[in-house]
Write a structure and sequence with these properties.
This protein has helices at 48-55, 76-79, 97-107, 115-125, 141-152, 171-186, 198-204, 222-227, 241-248, 268-277, 292-302, 310-313, and strands spanning 8-19, 22-33, 37-41, 63-68, 71-72, 82-85, 159-163, 190-194, 207-212, 215-221, 230-236, 251-254, 257-260, 281-288. The protein is of the alpha/beta class. The protein is globular, with a radius of gyration of 24 Å.
Length: 327
């Protein structure tokens, strides 16, 4: 059942973007519900950066349509309701963290009386309150990443677009960012997360879209991914994997481990009881699920090979495309 348009933060239909003779997006169709954390995944050159630029109104589609927060793509007023952390950014080293945030309050045209509260809340949320008066040039790469995240949260945006938000962070920093994303979700903020760190995406996202060759290969709910899992049982004694497979689905023997590829939780006690009744000794039952990386690689590997037309692969002639805007 298709969600109501009022429930969607992002909706695109057959979005296509072409730079000269290079096609960056071939027909992007996806939906992002309000209040969810949505992962946007794909290999380098898949069109992710181009898609983000279209969503933010930084570039116009060649064809297709879309809307963000109920308004058509490119609406200037809509941008004030969106927070954005780009992958590559740099702030003036001589400015303090507080000054950087105050400057962006002005750029975002936030009411001046709200600046002190906005800045203080952002600093606290990203863990920089005790470094608010230190210059950016003294910050580590991870601290600058936190500051960029703070900038994206100014003005209490309804949609936050994060491009590789944990790329420069250590494990503690990544955990902090997960906490911030969880806090945004609890406030009903939609988070659009573009990341190469699939384990991070798997931990925080509600759904993901996997994009390749300029289009969406699949949209997955993380709950469905977990449901695809099976179990590993360490058992010694007489075991007939064929009999188990006949009753509980695909099964293979891996040394002392019996691997049942897909089994409902309610069936696990019956499986253990059957093994024991047959004379086996069960030492461990370990649930496992198919990881997001497993699905990512399988989907990209299974994607049908496409014979690109010359317009899709030829280098631009005469500088007709802007190299700085290519995916």
């Amino acid at each position: 059942m298709e969600p109501d348009l009022g429930e969607l933060a992002i909706e695109t239909r057959e979005l296509r973007k072409q730079y000269g003779r290079i096609v960056a997006l071939t027909g992007l169709t996806m939906t992002v519900r309000r209040g969810e954390v949505f992962g946007f995944l794909g290999p380098n050159g898949a069109g992710k950066t181009t898609a983000v630029k279209l969503l933010l109104g930084l570039s116009r589609p060649t064809s297709g349509r879309g809307q963000v927060l109920g308004a058509p793509l490119g609406g200037v007023a809509t941008r004030q309701r969106i927070g954005y952390l780009p992958e590559l950014f740099r702030y003036q080293g001589w400015m303090t963290a507080r000054e950087v945030l105050a400057l962006h309050c002005e750029l975002a045209r936030l009411p001046r009386p709200s600046w002190p509260a906005e800045v203080a809340e952002a600093l606290e949320l990203v863990g920089l309150a005790d470094r608010s008066n230190d210059r950016v040039e003294t910050f580590s790469k991870g601290m600058q990443q936190r500051l960029g995240l703070g900038v994206a949260l100014l003005g209490k945006p309804e949609l936050v677009v994060l491009d590789e938000p944990t790329s420069a962070l250590d494990p503690v920093g990544r955990q902090d960012v997960r906490g911030i994303i969880g806090e945004l979700r609890s406030r009903g903020v939609t988070v659009f997360l573009n990341s190469h760190l699939l384990t991070e995406v798997e931990r925080v996202c509600d759904r993901v879209a996997i994009v390749d060759r300029g289009g969406v290969v699949a949209e997955l709910a993380m709950t469905d991914l977990v449901a695809e899992g099976g179990i590993r049982i360490r058992v010694t004694g007489p075991v007939d994997a064929k009999v188990i497979a006949g009753r509980f689905g695909p099964t293979r023997q891996d040394g002392e481990w019996l691997v049942v590829a897909s089994i409902a939780d309610a069936q696990v006690p019956a499986l253990v009881a059957e093994l024991v009744a047959a004379g086996g000794a069960v030492h461990a039952v370990v649930p496992e699920h198919r990881t997001l990386e497993d699905r990512f690689l399988a989907l990209l590997g299974a994607a049908p090979a496409q014979v690109a037309a010359p317009a899709q692969v030829a280098a631009p002639v005469g500088g007709s495309a802007d190299p700085g805007t290519l995916p």
